[in-house]
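Worked example

This section walks through a single chain of length 127. The input is the sequence exactly as stored; nothing has been trimmed or padded.
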Amino acid sequence: MNKKLNVLLADHTPAHAPGIRNLLNHYNDYLTVDHVKDGWEIITEPHQPDLVILYNNIPTPNGIELLVAVKMKYPKTRVMLFTRDPEPYYRNMCELLGADYFFQRSAIVSTLPEAVKALILSYQIAA
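Given that input, the structure is written out below as tokens.
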């Protein structure tokens, strides 16, 4: 893969972003990770991100609104959404609205690295 994947992490919680960055450090050769605290920054981003890692409790706009806006503006962008809400109906709704991956916040340490690795491999195969 010649280019690094452009990843935007959308999370307003100070404790989450450094932890997620640490989870992704192993993939620094393949990823460029930027962090936004306000979801509107993604929508005004001049370059299409390859991946958005989105915390559903981000306040402006909320995670569902941001998921829809990202998928409308950047249909090819993959969205990984993580949440505290374990309800199946919430997961189903997010998947129907275009979330490519859905994680419970409590399981992000065990699930995010493998999902990102699979995404990197899919881009390598497509290249």
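What to look for: Residues 5-126 form a domain with the Rossmann fold fold (CATH 3.40.50.2300).
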